[in-house]
Amino acid sequence: MSQTNTATFTPTIVAFLCNWCSYAGADLAGTGRQQYPPSIRVIRVPCSGRINPIYILKALVDGADGVMVSGCHPGDCHYLAGNYYARRRFTVLKKLLTVAGVNPDRVHFTWVSASEGARFAQVVTEVTDKVRALGPSEYKLQRGGDKA
Amino acid sequence: MSMDNQAQKAKDSAKKLLADGTVKTVIGYADEGVDGLCVPVFITDVKDADRLVWTRRSVPNLASYLIGRKEKTAIIAKSCDVRAIVNLVVENQVKRDDVYIIGMDCPGMTDPTGAVLHACKDCRVNTPPVFDERIENADVKPVATPDSKNAERGLDENLARFTKEMEKCILCFSCRQACYGCYCQTCFMDRGVPDWHPESPDMGAKMLYHLGRAMHLAGRCVECGACENACASGVDVRYLIREVTGFVNELYGYDAGLSLDEESAMLTYKPDDREVGFLGGETHA
Amino acid sequence: MPDVIKKEIMRKLLTKLAEGGVLVGPVDTGKVVEYKKTDADATLMDDRVSYKSPKEFYFPQTEKLLTFSGDEAVENIDVPPTVIFGAKSCDLEALRVMSAVFMEGRYADPFFERHMEKNIIIGVGCKAKKPGCFCDELGLDMEFSDFCDILLTDTGDAYKVEHLSEKGKSALSKLPETADVTCDNKRTAKKPEGDAIGLSADLEDAELFSAVDWSELTATCQGCGMCTYICPTCHCFEFKDVLKDGDIERYRCWDSCIYPKFTLHASGHNPRASRADRYRQRVLHKYLYVKKNTGFAACTGCGRCLRSCPVGVNIKNVAKAVMEAVAK
Lengths: 148, 285, 328
Hints:
The structure holds 3 protein chains of 3 kinds. Chain A is an alpha/beta fold. Chain A contains 5 helices and 4 strands, in the order E-H-E-H-E-H-E-H-H.
């Protein structure tokens, strides 16, 4: 990792965005010509409650340097309570990742509404900065190095 | 000696239940394994009931044998097995009326050398929380303070520990099969489409499996230790889940399998749940 | 020159033999004893048995066979020379079965052959039966098997040495202290007394499928398949093609008859749908099918599956129940 210049490194970040708020927020960031780093790969999901924690793990294992998850603000879920369930899940997942030695700055959860284009750009910038500072994922480097 | 009394009482009870037709089968332990291990046994006839035993090597968790049974079954269950049964009832896998729980006060189980099992050292509930019949043991004293908090460690230490444990894992999935809570018809690791399972048994595959399973067991683990007892490679399989269980307890005040009426922590929510580790701090706390 | 060498000299010999290759031996990892890549100093030289067999060093859990690059298929011939120390006679007899499966008959497996060519196998006879062991009931000698290059017999702080192949003889000559070990090689395996477990090779499936109530015999099995991972003779495998950097790599990976996916058809139909069906396959494969093909039963009584099974499923008792039912 020491060879990687963190200033020029562009991380690959998988972003799970809920259809109703955060994806629309990302759209608004685009139409509003907000600038943010080209590091995210967006996966649109119906609701943050739809995101199986395994998706996040799989993204990390298969080489993502970071993962970002965003849904409607609590109370605003299109399906009334999806994000409340998601909140418990993500809180526990983040703790679990830390216990397993994954840097918590690789995985981020947040809420972005459909009207928060500027906030979306700001969140992506913040997440990208944090992941860039960590360099490429340790898990990506470990893959295949064990027994295979 | 008290365990012998318990065994006798359990035997009598099994005979009575089978004789009067309350149940068709009694699931219990028989001393028929290697190294004194008591293995699961299904008793359907009164005259076989004398095979039943109760010793400090009654290690396996029998709760998972209840899933999918058609007729009423009695089960000789340690306190942790009872918690597993309760959680199966809460999750609608087993009907409460279909089980007759013979709950045993449990003094803790041992390995072949007589050392108390790792999971039993951590035991927080050693008397059955729910039962149809409780077989007491005067030697079993209530456990001191239920302590589920885990020590905080640095990230490097966490990674070193994770790597050390996972290097031993051969991905045979014994821990999953032994776990009462892993009753998915097809585990995500066994799915063909989509294929979650990475191609080789490397750290990535192990991380996906163990963390994925730990997430599935968040708020559902009853700390019976079946996973680590099943592991032939000596992996401390339970440590990730132990951390998660402690965390769920700390945040949501929930412990699995103690009450038939409480909703499982991850299947419910409160509007003012804490957001630990979310971007921008606890914006909605 | 006597045929006894001290254990320290043995360690020196192992270090010498492992030069440019890999040494595999039993190691105490804290909770269990395991065959691992190790150095001569960490190798256990007592009578303990590892929880899994050393088969992964000649039949790896995952092995790259080929790389397809454009129109070319390149075989992976990168097999390190390996010294396997401390295989017990059950492991050696198991290796005999594996060799018959992979190297005899119409097709020989080049990958397995390559491992066998490069391996030096040093067996150690067992001093005592461990809980769960039943090699004697399969007619095997726990102290001796000739399916290795060098066989050692533990005499306390030294080993009695027998070299059983040219490879073994030349291995001993690598070290001056062991170069002139002589031995007469006249010993043969003793046939222990006792009831041999075995099914007659002319039995037919139809008879065996209905001979016993398989679901009752295997009711407690949890289907974890660990027995197949730690078994010295289980050798079922599958292939997996993996895309890596534009090339396709073909891997051979262990598979297990205990898993439901082992026989699952693309249609969704599974010919061995229940756990009982799958366990039946394991038992009959061990005691009958391999015997039909190679002449050896594929169980050597190492007892590992008995010791490690979380719910104590006992393949010996199942086999005996089947034998009794057939005899009736």
